[in-house]
Design a protein that fits this description.
The chain is an alpha/beta fold. It contains 7 helices and 9 strands, in the order βαβββαβαβαβααββα. The two termini are 38 Å apart. It binds S-adenosylmethionine (SAM).
């Protein structure tokens, strides 16, 4: 999978070279390219923002650098910027790609969204700053052939920029790619693997730590009882921690 990230702070993506993501890149499962949006500015100050139309606080990211940057990473020129004889036609429509616009006003990024993005061959993450990216950028790419646009939020709070959100999404979706996790079975039982169910509490050695014992059933070797205990604890925990999720798949828990 090819993953392009466009940002004005490329250094923010440095952690993507570590741990699981770093190994996935080394193994060739993902190819991560991080780009500085300012490379697609045309003035000597490398300006990427301007005042909001209609007035108000803050600055808005201008569409022109974004358009040039996204066209470049998609490997396609905008029809109006092609040679005369080809104008109006999208030359080299290329492979399908998904443009992910990080935004607090987007749809919520959840495990289902991670699984959906994990099926793409090419993802392009647009990391906003200031008051966000001019809305015409998402609108424009929605109308371009072979480009899907997802405007996604990682939660109901506002970050200073989209870089952390892009990292969150890239890590969540990369874990789902074949060959990334040492034991793919880890994916089957974890939180959100089934909609509306969190994972049961987990324990390791020693059997007693600071007076707290590991539940006896987990040391019993009785697989049926262990599975039942885990199921019960998962449902209990979901009701307690996330009553909004409990039974989201229609189960009564
Ligand atoms: N004015 C925007 C609003 O009210 O929704 C917030 C802009 S925020 C300061 C700057 C950038 O951070 C956004 O363009 C977006 O890329 C990113 N961002 C902030 N919160 C986010 C979230 N919850 N999920 C994804 N991206 C977020």
């Amino acid at each position: 999978m090819l993953i392009d990230v466009i940002t004005i702070f490329p250094e923010y993506l440095a952690p993507a070279r570590l741990s699981l993501l770093g190994k996935a890149a080394e193994a060739g499962i993902i190819q991560l390219r991080v780009h500085d949006l300012r490379e697609w500015t045309e003035d000597r100050h490398h300006t990427v923002d301007d005042t909001p139309a209609g007035g108000g606080a803050g600055m808005v990211m201008m569409p022109e650098p974004w358009g040039r940057a996204i066209d470049a990473v998609l490997g396609r020129a905008h029809p109006a910027e092609q040679p005369d004889e080809e104008q109006g036609q999208e030359r080299n429509q290329g492979e399908a790609a998904t443009l992910v616009v990080t935004t607090a006003s987007g749809r919520l990024f959840d495990q289902a969204a991670a699984a959906r993005l994990a099926r793409a061959d090419h993802l392009v993450f647009a990391c906003g700053r200031y008051e966000g990216i001019d809305a015409r950028v998402a609108e424009h790419y929605r109308a371009r052939p072979q480009v899907a646009v997802e405007e996604l939020s990682i939660g109901d709070y506002v970050l200073a920029g989209g870089e952390v959100a892009a990292l969150v999404m890239i890590e969540a979706l990369t874990r789902l790619l074949p060959g990334v996790l040492g034991n793919a079975e880890s994916l089957a039982e974890e939180s959100h693997a089934q909609p509306g169910l969190l994972e049961y509490p987990v324990y390791t050695k020693p059997p007693v730590w600071r007076g707290l014992a590991t539940p006896e059933v987990l040391l019993s070797g009785h697989h049926g009882q262990i599975a039942q205990w885990r199921r019960d604890r998962a449902e209990e925990r979901t009701r307690l921690m996330r009553p909004d999720l409990a039974g989201a798949d229609g189960r009564r828990i």
